[in-house]
Amino acid sequence: MSSKGPFVVKEIKGLDTGQQLWGKFLILDKNVRKTKDGREVINLKVGDQTGEIDVVLWDNCDIGGELNPNVVVGIQGDLGSYNNRLQITGKRVKALEDDITPYLKGPAVAIEELIAEFRDIYDSISDLYIKGILDHIFTPSYSEDFYKSAAAKKVHHNYPGGLLEHTVQVAKICDQIARLYPYLNRDLLVAGAILHDIGKVEEYELAAVPEYTVSGRLVGHIVLGHEMVNEAIKTIKAEGQDFPEMLEIMVKHLVLSHHGSLEYGSPVVPLFPEALLLHMIDNLDAKLFVFRNKIEEDEDGANPFTAYDSFFEQFFFKYRY
């Protein structure tokens, strides 16, 4: 940490209440609202590689430039808390032209290593029909976009490369579980892991801070992914090759059912073992990501629990035995 007068210039992970602050952060989200008495309030979520923090800008804040997601800002303000969450009340905020790269979160493993792991898993599939679907979807141009994409806007793996990181982890777990249950179709299960989130490349803009596309909001990645599988199989058939009807239906079902229930966006629930496992492993990897990050980002060393999280409606226990 370096200091400048009464202010601290510090990464988000080390911030605490009761300080004045000057720092540079990346805008992740922006919301403008009106108070009951007509005052305009800007709420920002900003971040760096160590974490995220909320910022509130009242109408007396000195604002310079356009404050939008994917823009680096300099913030001078006071550190406090709101609803048990750390919050900056801005006094002066200025949009900067800094490169956003140093502020971006990313996978825990280098992208090159993740790509190598992905290709090893991909190449391990021996079923020619299943491999044909993958080869028709994972063209060089699509693969390049897939490797850069985020897995979500907010909840888990929400950064460039996050989709690849999540997919590799889900596929690796699927591969290991298939070894424990020999009656499972290993290639079908692992292919489901590779394919389950392919629609997210179309669901989110390829940007440092993920934003929904029009088709992402109106259609969603589950249906987009199903359409991609359907088009791949149609192309295979148009090329004069046979494709087993039941396998086609089962692969589509893996994509459609991976959220597990209608209330979470799947039009059908998992109806065979590989589909059930894919749903559970997908959910497991996402939830473990959340638990790990909530625990690591909490700075209150005196409390064995994190602050209450209103999104997940729970506390997280931080102690590690």
Estimated share of beta-strand residues: 15-25%
Q: Give the total of beta strands.
A: 8
Strand order of the largest sheet: 3-4-5-8-7
Under the CATH scheme, the architecture of the largest domain is Orthogonal Bundle
Helix segment count?
Answer: 10
Listing every helix as H and every strand as E from the N terminus to the C terminus, the arrangement reads EEEEEEEEHHHHHHHHHH
Low-confidence runs of at least 5 consecutive residues: 1-6
Structural class: alpha/beta
- Cα-to-Cα separation, first versus last residue: 30 Å
Keywords:
321 residues, alpha/beta, OB fold (Dihydrolipoamide Acetyltransferase, E2P), Hypothetical protein af1432, 2 domains, 5-stranded mixed beta barrel, 19% strand, disordered N terminus
Quick overview of this protein structure:
By secondary structure, the chain is α/β, with parallel strands linked by helices.
